[in-house]
Amino acid sequence: MGDVVLSLGMGVDSVGILTRFLLEPETRGFDLRDLIVMTAMTGDEFAETGEHMQRYMLPLMRTHRVRYVQLSRGGPRRGDGYVVLNDSAQPARMHMTGPWRLQDELLRNGTVPQFARNRRTCSEKSKATPLDQWKHDHLGDQPYQHILGFSAEEEKRIARDATYTSHNRQARFPLAHEWGWTRQDTLGYLHEVYGGEWPRSCCVYCPFAISDTEYLAERWRRDPDAAVLALVMERRSVTLNPRSTLFARGSAWQFARDHSLLQALACADEMLRDGTWAIYDVRRIYHAATDKTIGQPITSKKGSAWRSVTTLAEGTQSRMIRELHHLARAHRATPQVDEFNIHRLMIRCPTTPYPTTERFLSVGPAGIDDKRRKSFAGTWSKLVDQTRLAA
Ligand code: SF4
To answer: Of 234, 250, 273, at which residue does a domain stop?
Structure first.
């Protein structure tokens, strides 16, 4: 057999597998010298995850001389590749942050983690891509067994994983297919071995963690800085899109209010109040959806959206609001204030049929990058001209 790669997400499932492989050798079926354990860091995990790894997993890996590769993205673009934070069979410490954190991307883009086409794009960029790039560079085409921590109730994820399978990768799911362990079984096992509840691994602002509201509220209560990051991230996101709250079913700010996370709310308010603000010129083109069977646009249905962001001015919040009112006079319109206290001046409202355009100026926290694709300006002018002619 060739190499065995275990993706260690640092959460309950993958930690359960590695622990059992090391403590009960008959469960693994390979020589430990063939094992490479890998973690890709988003840079934004709760502190307790790193602490548990440092305290329990690293000593176990050192005892068994397991090769542990800790990675992160090298930068914002795919071409920036990955950075090896540590690669050792005697890992002394956890390296939880690399040169480019997921929050760097989300804050600078003014967005929150997205779920698109059945996939978590943030996870693909921050975890799957650097891991794949490292394997490509170090394993090449040689066959390897890939151990994944999907539990018995995750057959859908296992089926989805089959769509990624490449010719040299043989996926193995010990929890689901060999031991029949549910998440609860693995939690119980880790409790027996380490004497406490193993924390769930995720970014502090992960919107998918809302499935267990009380658990998330308790984590944010214990770690207010984590909640502040989530609140600030959402405030930037709703500056550019009022529908883009952290959670699909509501906002992080409302969640924090509902759970009386007063310290986090006060810190986030203070950070925003004392920080620099900006006026953004936000334009969107909503394309028509495409009927894939005939390759024709469906003008009654919204397709993909392109966004352009331009920073017009920066200063204190009150100065930016005054400036927005000044600009409003030129546009003969009145700014509105939404539930997030974002002051917004609508200049073009989207209409049907598609494609259509939208434009507004909004006042929000500074630091969102100016960004648009190359063909945005040409397409925008064409659509705006068409609207004028039709009017
Ligand atoms: S933990 Fe959540 S936010 Fe972080 S990469 Fe995974 S899906 Fe995205």
So the answer is: 273
Q: Which residue's alpha carbon is at the smallest distance from atom 5 of ligand 1?
A: 123
Tell whether 229 and 120 lie within a shared domain. Answer: no
Maximum distance among all alpha carbons in the chain?
Answer: 76
pTM of the model: 0.94
pLDDT values of the chain reduced to their tens digit, one per residue, 391 residues: 579 999 999 999 999 999 999 999 999 999 999 999 999 999 999 999 999 999 999 999 999 999 999 999 999 999 999 999 999 999 999 999 999 999 999 999 999 998 776 678 999 999 999 999 999 999 999 999 999 999 999 998 898 887 766 789 999 999 999 999 999 999 999 999 999 999 999 999 999 988 899 999 999 999 999 999 999 999 999 999 999 999 998 999 999 999 999 999 999 999 999 999 999 999 999 999 999 888 899 999 999 999 999 999 999 999 999 999 999 999 999 999 999 999 999 999 999 999 999 999 999 999 999 999 999 999 999 999 887 777 6
**Closest by CA position to 309, among listed 97, 64, 45, 110:** 110
Residue carrying structure tokens 């542990």: 68
Q: Are residues 28 and 122 in the same domain?
A: yes
User: Residue whose CA is closest, atom 6 of ligand 1?
Assistant: 123
Compute, in angstroms, the gap from residue 387 CA to the centroid of ligand 1.
40
φ, ψ of residue 382 in degrees (nearest 5): -60, -45
Q: Give strand pairing partners of 88.
A: 68
Are 266 and 319 contained in the same domain?
no
